[in-house]
Amino acid sequence: MQKMNTHSREILEADSKSKRSCLCGMVPTVSLLCVVLLFTSSFFVQCYNEKLLRWRMNIQKLGKDNCKNQCRPGGSHALPEGIISDTSNLEMRHLWDLPVTKTIENKENAATNLFAMAVGIKQKDLVNKMVKKFLASNFVVMLFHYDGIVDEWNDFEWNNQVIHVSVANQSKWWFAKRFLHPDIVAEYGYIFLWDEDLGVEHFNPDKYISIIKSEGLEISQPALDTENSEVHHQITARGRRSNVHRRIYKPVGSGKGCDGSSTAPPCTGWVEMMAPVFSRASWRCVWYMIQNDLIHAWGLDMQLGYCAQGDRTKNVGVVDAEYIVHYGHPTLGGSDVNEVSSQAKNHRVDVRRLSYRELQVFRKRWQKAVEEDECWVDPFQ
Questions:
Q1: Which of 322, 89, 90 is nearest to 206 (CA)?
Q2: Cα–chain-centroid distance for residue 235?
Q3: 135, 256, 281, 289: least surrounded by Cβ within 10 Å?
Q4: Can you give the pTM of this predicted structure?
């Protein structure tokens, strides 16, 4: 019995030693595995961090690229985007009163179109009739005083409702280039840029706007009453059978013929420069075409179709339903307002001579621009 107990203890001690030996043998293996796991996890963590860093850098780069790609006005890059005000308007503001809070009612009554005209005091009666008619249709009205006389307009009740710009002996197009920049008139749907010697007894601005909108006219003019007007171009003469016409028909025998297949001015896609009406989009284009030093803008009429926002045979037209009278008063270039009346010189001949010279200069510039711009494609060729 005693031998059996001794034998059992020996077996248990042997098992115990064996287990301790196994445990001791596993320690290095476990330690090695821990080391391997540690290095492996460190490697994966490092890889993950590197990928995360690259992702963040790509996001930042994308953000910077987006900033670079933002289309901002020249000179405004030093400013935060939200503070940039890149357009204006011709709304007059009181020096002391707070601006009226915008509501649906006064927003609907806000002026949405612009009427601008070069004027002289000699034509004040005609100008008065036009201004009153356009103000009644809620237009912004801007008068360019080419004779330098402003105070004598104070007698009219509307005098303080319109904007006056006075520079002596300057043309309508000189004023337009300098004071009607597209960003200044961006709020106005249509820009009427008229001469002063026009009669508007049969003209309604609201009806006219309605017609050109429905007809899709980007550039237009009211037709001329043939019985009372000085008509220089057949296409401007009023037709009695339609609201709008876009072309004329002229036999070949009377010069260059015009027919239904004609696609170029003066047969179609053309208006005269005395009473043009431009959409917002077309005016942005036309303004860039007006040459800063060619103040009479001769030759511009033949190229207006390029600014018609598409097919000039469709988007340029003459409105017959709302027509005007062209009296043909040669006021611009009359007697010099700075000279004594007895010695005053009439400059009409000089004005006409310069106009013809500017026409030749404009044509040469256009041809040169076409030849030098390799990227430009003529849409009408």
A1: 322
A2: 28
A3: 256
A4: 0.78
Question: Residue 296: CB partners within 8 Å, gap ≥ 6?
Answer: 171, 173, 351, 354, 355, 358
| 332, two tokens | 């611009």
**Chain centroid to CA 188:** 10
pLDDT tens per residue across span 120-156: 999 999 999 999 999 999 999 999 999 999 999 999 9
Name, in order, each residue with C-beta under 8 angstroms of 259's C-beta and a sequence gap of 6 or more.
249, 267
Instruction: Determine what percent of the chain is predicted with pLDDT higher than 70.
Output: 77
Ramachandran assignment for 297, one of left (phi > 0), alpha (psi -120 to 50 degrees), beta (any other) = left
**3-state DSSP of 83-100:** HCCCCCCCCCCCCCCCCC
Pseudo-torsion of CA 153, 157, 162, 164, nearest 10°?
10
- Averaged confidence pLDDT in the chain: 85
Strands 316-326 and 219-224: parallel
Distances from the Cα of 309 to the Cα of 193, 216, 280, angstroms: 19, 10, 11
